Amino acid sequence: MQEQQYDYGMIGLGTMGRNLVFNMNDHGYSVAGYDKDLSQVTTLQKESGDRKIFSTGTLPEFINALKKPRVIMMLVPAGPIVDAVVNELKPFLSKDDLLMDCGNSHYTDTDKRTDQLAKENIHFMGVGVSGGESGARYGPSIMPGGAKEAYQRVAPMLEAVSAKINGEPCVTYLGIRSAGHYVKMVHNGIEYALMQLIAESYHLLKECAGMGNDELHEVYSKWNKGKLGSFLIEITADIFKQPDELAEGRLIDHILDSAHQKGTGQWTSQDAMDLQMPIPAIDTAVAIRDLSAFKEERQAAEKKLKGPDKQFSGNKEELVTKLEDAVYFAMINIYAQGLSLMQHASAKYNYGLKMEDIARIWRGGCIIRASLLEDIRTAFSKDPSLSNLLLGEGFPAKLETSQLGARSIIQTATETGIPLPVLMSTLSYYDSYRRGWLPSNLLQAQRDYFGAHTYERTDRKGIFHTHWNQKQD
Length: 473
Ligand code: 6PG
Description:
This protein has helices at residues 15-26, 38-48, 59-65, 80-89, 107-118, 132-138, 148-161, 179-208, 213-224, 231-239, 264-275, 280-292, 295-304, 316-349, 355-361, 372-382, 395-416, 421-433, 440-451, and strands at residues 8-11, 31-34, 53-56, 71-74, 98-101, 123-130, 141-145, 164-165, 168-169. With 473 residues, the protein is an alpha/beta fold. The strands form 2 sheets. It has a 7-stranded mixed beta sheet with strand order 3-2-1-4-5-6-7, with helices on both faces. Strand 2 (31-34), helix 2 (38-48) and strand 3 form a beta-alpha-beta unit. The chain starts with 7 loop residues before the first strand and ends in a 22-residue tail after the last helix. 6-phosphogluconic acid binds at residues 104, 130-132, 188, 191, 261-262, 264, 366-367.
């Protein structure tokens, strides 16, 4: 019998769970794994060799294998499966056991589960883990939320397994209750917007500048060495080189242009709408992913709806330089929107989030890691209450230069009919945010005109209503 020997438990032995088990074991922790699917149990058993890893498909055996008070991590799909696992576990748990949900659960579910389990003196933490399969194996970015005391119990292990940048672990305590899952949700919202932005740059380079896959590979590889340096740009460069095993040419040209999603980007937009926080780049990325699924309708529309006839006749190198600036400009705006949402949500939900910490732990391991995050971290360390990154130290100057690239690229795209929805939305956000006056006085006048909704004035205090000079016909 394997009684009470193992430091940690892991429920869900798919690739992510298994890789995290091996990562923990590399750092000296013994782990017992449990999965209902016996094929996963066998895979872990086979791959474990003589490591101190135990793998079982029997829940009582799994529970008995763990040291007390137990710490159990779950890496199972978000939604009802998490509740099913928690309910199945509950009868076996005792006071002070700690459950860590390491999946992409909706933050409101995490709050509910935290409260339910607290009634039974069981601690629950919502822990965002980013970095995909290789991150889980060799160092993810980890976004933990929950009670501080619970975090302290697992901090040494989380720090050991996380990615490191200049020796600093890409994990820190983020805040109470669902703080960790909230930050992971916004991470994914930013991920959606960055991915769409990069896809738009690809569209422009491919169809406007007529670049082939080798040239595209060169452009993104070069960009990755400069101010756009980031995981998503790096993998984009790789993608253009990937040969196809099933057909002639490169794989990218045989992938259907209809994108799927598990919903975390959409949740970010939904929550931002509820909080009335503007994050148009993320909203747009979600909407365009949705539009991509209307493949047949788009194909029919292509035959009927006309755009401009103009072809690009400019200099390709100049276009690439301007596009690099445009993508940089949009990247800054995308992070700015996600961070401002988190600043606001933190005040609303009492998380106590620190943007500097978030920027620091996003520098390595996660999907949205980028060299820009170092500058973002510095801006928030200088001014922790910064309401919008666009105003952070050094950012107005970066934006002043790069906006010119964005404007020029948008002009070229408009003339040639290439859609750049996220890039365009970031320029509109920037141009709106930097205006002391917006035409919303007209909205107020219209509301008061048709619905007596009242308005405020610029020259005196109070609420006003006007009997507008309405047309009678
Ligand atoms: C990460 C990723 C990860 C997952 C996304 C994909 O941080 O490691 O964000 O969580 O790949 O959830 O999301 P979609 O399926 O919605 O694109």
